[in-house]
Amino acid sequence: MEQLSTSKKHGLKSVGTARLLSLDTFRGITVAAMILVNNPGDWGHIYAPLGHAHWHGWTPTDLVFPFFLFIVGVSISYALQNKQRAGLVGKIVKRSLILFGLGLFLNLFPKFDLTTVRIPGVLQRIALVYLACSLIYIKTDTKTQGWLIGILLVGYWLLMSFVPVPDFGSANLDPETNLGAWFDRTLLGGQHLWKTAKVWDPEGLLSTLPAVATGLSGIRAGTLLKSNRSEAEKTAWLFVAGCLSLIGAYVWNGFFPINKSLWTSSFVLLTSGLALQALALCYWLIDVQGYQRWTKPFVAFGVNAITVFFLSGLIPRLLNMIKTQQPDGTEMGGKEWLYQTFFVTYFESPYNASLAGALTFVLIWFVILYVMYQKKIIIKI
């Protein structure tokens, strides 16, 4: 997943196979957006586009995670080209376990209470999607991968729309009573799910199936980009595939609504379609037309994507372990103290203060990552 671009302009060298600068840039934009939306100064004051849709529907923030899984799929098609490499399956499993372990560590830290730890999570879903898509990629051909996307999406729709939910009755898409929520509670127990909801999880087990389809759509895009077609043809096909996927999304939305928390099949088509078009645009501008100067900040994020995502989740927790005594006798965590001192004080609007806090966090990480990038420090997972 953490592969380097071959662009000499950016000082990167090949790791096993040539990579696209546009892919590193697209990954970097996505990771920077992840950090932005995951770290507002105040969760109670965020602008609507920087928050998730309440249930059905979507916002720009809802695109970020599926874009990353799509990019994981594209990366797999490049990184695992030598499908017969000795020990490849073992390396795939090892990387998946490390990713899952990092996600579980974030959920455990700092209390390390195994009785209430949330088992699902973002890194855990990345691990499962990476494992499934990698094994599918090295064991099947392109045609089979296409069929599997269809089977996963249609199969998930049938499960969620027609299978009765034990203890609740007919199939439904409500937050607490849908089949996926029941499945998570039954297998994991409510104490191991998302603390905000307690009875369902946005990265639950059943919804990982269509998330695998998101990764497979990225593999198909990567396979196209590696083909012998001309650059113009590749770009055109990515755009056409994106348009068809968007049309399918809004047709399906009529009876299986676009929903990020459920990762509905229409949501997969929507986000994959937009990801295809975004990748096509990046590919045409950066790799074909050569507009590369602006990409450096994003490549800095892209080549250390998992590292910065993990640390950006860990450091706020560490800061909040540093307590400061307040005049009223209460204690305030370090992160909250920094926000109140340097942002709330200087912004009249709490929404602007919250956004400024998030942007500052991203900027701090850019400085760190750019120094690492210039020194060619790449931490691979």
How do the strands of the widest beta sheet line up side by side?
A: 1-2
Question: Quaternary state, please?
Answer: single chain
Helical amount: 55-70%
Query: Could you give the order of the helices and strands?
Result: HHHHHHHHHHHEEHH
Largest sheet, strands/sense/barrel: 2 strands, antiparallel
Domain count: the total is: 2
User: What value does the Rg take, in angstroms?
Assistant: 21 Å
Low-confidence stretches: 1-17
Mean pLDDT: 92
Q: What form results from the Cα inertia axes?
A: globular
Structural class assignment: mainly alpha
How much of the polypeptide forms β-strand, as a percent range?
Answer: under 5%
Count of DSSP-assigned helices: 13
- Termini Cα gap: 8 Å
Description:
With 381 residues, the chain is an all-alpha fold. It folds into 2 domains: 141 residues, no CATH class; 235 residues, no CATH class. The chain is 59% helix and 2% strand. Strands 1-2 form a two-stranded antiparallel ribbon. α1 crosses α10. The longest helix is centred in the C-terminal third of the chain and has 25 residues. The N terminus is likely disordered.
